[in-house]
Amino acid sequence: TLAIRASLEKVTDARPPLDIKATKSIPDLSDKVTAKLLSDFRESQVFQATSFPVDPESDVVLKVTIKRFYWKFKIYPTYFLPLIQVIHIFGAPMADILGISELTAKVVHQTSGNEIATYEGKGQLKSVMSMYDMKTGEMGAELADAFRQASKQIKEAIWKDKQRIEETVQRIAAPAQPQSPAIP
């Protein structure tokens, strides 16, 4: 655990139009990602405390941006051909599924506004599905797994930078020592 307190700003959504179209069934994505990241950082105990909204007593603010958040389910054309679709009954793949998540997280000093570090997390999960792999309630699981991968990469990078982040926060927070005039 880093010996500093963090606040999480509401996540910024900077997805390209294709990603927005592919995930239009997820309303209020920024709110949902913010809530999930807050829960994830608290459970992982990355920081001494993690709050939302921004707490003026926090040492740092996490500014997270969604760069990609994409999910695609593509059924093979053979599934729609009457005589050929029988191959799917015997377990031949019938669809490709892809989930992609990319996040950027900036750690910014609360009072000075100085950026301490920037981290990127990228997750991607591809799978092939047959008729026998279909399970109720699991649609979108690839995107959820890709998101967990991206979040994990960011947390691990912050942990690796623990000493540098803590020292930077202490250095910025330390009051400047007054210069004593030179005695002639």
Characterization of the model:
The model has no long low-confidence stretch (mean pLDDT 87). Strands 1, 2, 3, 4, 5 and 6 form a six-stranded mixed beta sheet that branches. The protein is elongated. Helix content is 32%, strand content 33%. With 184 residues, it is of the alpha/beta class. A hairpin with a 5-residue loop joins strand 5 and strand 6. It has five helices and six strands, in the order E-E-H-H-E-E-H-E-E-H-H. The longest helix has 20 residues.
Written as H for each helix and E for each strand, in order along the chain, the element string is EEHHEEHEEHH
Tell me about the biggest sheet?
Answer: 6 strands, mixed
**In what range is the share of β-strand residues?**
25-35%
Shape: elongated
**pLDDT averaged over residues:** 87
> Which consecutive residue ranges, at least 5 long each, have pLDDT under 50?
none
Q: Which range best describes the helical content: under 10%, 10-25%, 25-40%, 40-55%, 55-70% or over 70%?
A: 25-40%
- Based on CA atoms alone, the radius of gyration comes out at 23 Å
- Tell me the number of helical segments per DSSP (H or I, 4 or more residues long): 5
Number of DSSP strand runs: 6
State the end-to-end distance.
Answer: 49 Å
